[in-house]
Each structure stands twice: as structure tokens, then as C-alpha cells.
Design brief:
Elements (H helix, E strand, L loop, with lengths): L9 H24 L6 E5 L2 E4 H17 L5 E3 H4 L5 H8 L2 E9 L1 H6 L5 E8 L2 E9 L4 E6 L3 E4 L2 E3 L12 E4 L6 H10 L5 E3 L5 H9 L5 E4 L4 H13 L3 E3 L15 E4 L2 H11 L4
Parallel strand pairs: 3-4, 10-11, 10-12
Antiparallel strand pairs: 1-2, 4-5, 5-6, 6-7, 7-8, 8-9, 12-14, 13-14
Length: 278
């Protein structure tokens, strides 16, 4: 079992996890093994997409519809052709599936194991369940709002973090920040034990915080399929995912900037030290 059998939606958690694993096994894992032959193009400059992304999203849409008839799906690849789609559905539909069929496409194409399949269920604008499947290490992360975070059926809780900024490690993804902000963030990075550029895959970045392998991550662009699954996972594990003004993350928001940390005190410490004079 991925969550306790007493959970109000344990059957749905299990069924969606199975759908994700089946689609990954049918489409993504064979494509990864034959990636040198894979058709790759840019949907926007600097962002790769493959035929495997598109097919995996199509199949996930069909199979999720079988589990929950009438619930629309907002997928990354479909939305790339209509940027208004996510906001419209998240604002108007009572329930929506958010799907990232292949998170970390550039890593996938390069042969890195850092890629994942991510799904979230949003009800009235709030993420209520999420799934992150990592085929290369066979790990399934799931979260249910109010029901906890889980890794392969074991409860996942963020470990304690050090109090001092100088002992904290994290990732700062600066690609979409304005140049002046990037410069300020770079100048303040010395305050921490280590600041990396990230793993280019939210399906790796968020679990690293939930498991305690790093203490924080800062994002600028916050597309809902990239962040709804992991934000719920970290929150249910005891961490914090908030906008830079401290307001809670919600997938329908168009605000930029999202700071995720292993706990609330760490969030505050990172915010104060990373953005001083920014």
C-alpha cells in the first residue's frame, strides 16, 4: 500500500500510481533506452520536448479519464500550445488533473537518470493529492492533503535542519530571474554551506528536500504541473512551500517566485539571508 488503507482516497492513490507506472513502462522507459533515436524538438527556445512526452501525456489523459470520468486534464504539452488553458481550468473546474508526463526532458535526452512523471489532483484550486514516479530508481512519492507524504508506502517526514544559514544547503534556479536579482542572489550565496544550480527536474528537487538531502530550493517560474505535486509532498512531510511574500503556494496563482524549505524556521532563515539587499 502507498498510503494507509484507512485513507479516504487510498484506492484512488493506488490506482493513479499504477496508471503512472504503466504509462512510464510502456512509453518512457523504452524511449529512454533508445533515446539516441528519439525525435526531439523545441516547443519554445531552450525547452526540449520529445515524441515520448507527447505520447505519455496522451495515455495518461485517457487512463485518468477512466478513473475519474468528467475530470479534465491540464497537461504540460497540450498547454504549451495554449498558455491560457491552465489558469482557465484551475479557476473554473471543481476538479482538475495536472500532468507533467516527463519532468526533466533535457536530462532524459542527455541520458541522466534525473527525470520523473508527475501528477496532481486539484480541487477548487487546492492540490489535494500528488504523485511523483521516478522510473530510473523505482521510487514512488505520493502525498494526500491532510493524509501525509509517503515514499513506497513508508511515511515521509522532513528531518530536523540546522539553525545556522552557514550549515544549510540548497538550490537556486536563477534562469528566469532578472539580471539584478540574479546578481544579488549570487552575492548572498556565500552565507550558506552550499548553493547549487539545481537538478533541472522538480521531480528530483522536491523529494530531496522532503528526504533531507538538501534544505531549500528557490524557483522563479512556477508552472502548475512543475510545482503542485512537489509542493504538496514537502508540505505534508512537514516542510514549507510559500511565495516570497510568505503567502501559501496555490497552483492557480500566476505569481512568480517560490521558496521551498525543509521547515518553517529554515524558510525564514533562507528568505532573510538570500534576499538581503536584493
Amino acid at each position: 500500500m502507498l498510503v494507509p488503507s484507512g485513507s479516504r482516497s487510498s484506492r484512488l492513490i493506488e490506482d493513479v500510481a499504477l496508471v503512472i507506472q504503466e504509462v512510464a513502462a510502456e512509453v518512457l522507459e523504452p524511449a529512454f533506452a533508445r533515446r539516441a533515436e528519439l525525435e526531439v524538438w523545441e516547443k519554445v527556445p531552450g525547452e526540449a520536448v520529445t515524441a515520448a512526452d507527447v505520447e505519455a501525456e496522451r495515455l495518461l489523459g485517457l487512463r485518468l479519464a477512466e478513473l475519474q470520468p468528467g475530470v479534465p486534464m491540464v497537461g504540460e504539452e497540450v498547454s504549451s500550445g495554449d498558455p491560457t488553458l491552465p489558469g482557465a481550468w484551475l479557476a473554473e473546474a471543481p476538479r482538475v488533473w495536472l500532468v507533467d508526463p516527463l519532468d526533466g526532458t533535457a536530462n532524459f535526452v542527455a541520458g541522466s537518470p534525473d527525470w520523473a512523471v508527475m501528477v496532481a489532483l486539484v480541487e477548487h484550486g487546492v492540490t489535494v493529492a500528488s504523485w511523483i514516479w521516478r522510473p530510473t530508481d523505482r521510487r514512488m512519492f505520493v502525498a494526500e492533503r491532510g493524509g501525509g507524504a509517503w515514499l513506497d508506502g513508508q511515511r515521509l517526514l522532513c528531518p530536523r535542519a540546522p539553525h545556522e544559514a552557514s550549515r544549510l544547503t540548497g538550490a537556486v534556479l536563477t534562469r528566469y530571474f532578472e539580471e539584478a536579482t540574479r546578481d544579488s542572489l549570487a552575492k548572498n550565496a556565500h552565507r550558506f554551506a552550499e548553493v547549487t544550480a539545481g537538478r533541472r527536474c522538480a521531480g528530483v528537487e522536491y523529494p530531496m528536500i522532503a528526504e533531507g538531502h538538501q534544505h531549500f530550493a528557490l524557483f522563479h517560474r512556477t508552472l502548475p504541473w512543475d510545482h503542485a505535486p512537489g509542493a504538496l509532498l514537502v508540505e505534508e512531510a512537514g516542510g514549507r512551500a510559500c511565495r516570497l511574500d510568505g503567502s501559501p503556494y496555490q497552483p492557480a496563482q500566476t505569481s512568480t517566485g517560490l521558496l521551498v524549505a525543509i521547515d518553517a524556521p529554515t524558510w525564514t532563515t533562507v528568505r532573510e539571508n538570500l534576499f538581503e539587499n536584493a
